[in-house]
Amino acid sequence: MTDRQNEHHRRSLRLKGYDYSQAGGYFVTICAYGKECLFGEVESGLMRLNEYGEIVASEWVRSAELRLEIDCGEFVVMPNHFHGIVHIVGAYGNTPSPGNTPISRDEKKMVSFRNKGVLPYGKGVLPYAPTSPSGNVGSMVRGFKGAASRRINQLRNTPGAPVWQRNYYEHIIRDEADYNRIAEYVSSNPQRWMEDSLHPLFE
To answer: Domain for residue 198, yes or no?
Structure first.
């Protein structure tokens, strides 16, 4: 099958008819290009980020900070993929979260990075920047992937080289129980790395 045919037959991962800019929670998974273990390694159940992994973590935080209508929840950078929870919180950051707890601006500036990876900005706090006019999950993911790719390629002197797979996976978080289940999955991901379907052993 040619590249053009592959493009034509590429299965959409979006839910048809769903408005991805509406307030709510989304769980996203993004894989490294070719599922290469590019971002570090898991040691004794802890994810040890290399310099590329640190870029990924900082750019995810920065992506949310650039958009006041978006909040990033639990996330983890794994050796060859990324899991994260995104909240669309409204233009002023005051739409209740799945747990019905309002998200304040001060709370939005703090990041809980469950695997204790080191964020280069210290304490996970970044200065605010003007909000983006586009407040949907796809826009945030595209911006995040592009920014992380540019910085990683600059560091490894490979301009234009692919860092991420073209698409990504998302799941709409339906309720508080769904949120809690996913948050636990994200935070415990490094401990289950040897059983992960994305581990190179399963390729």
So the answer is: no
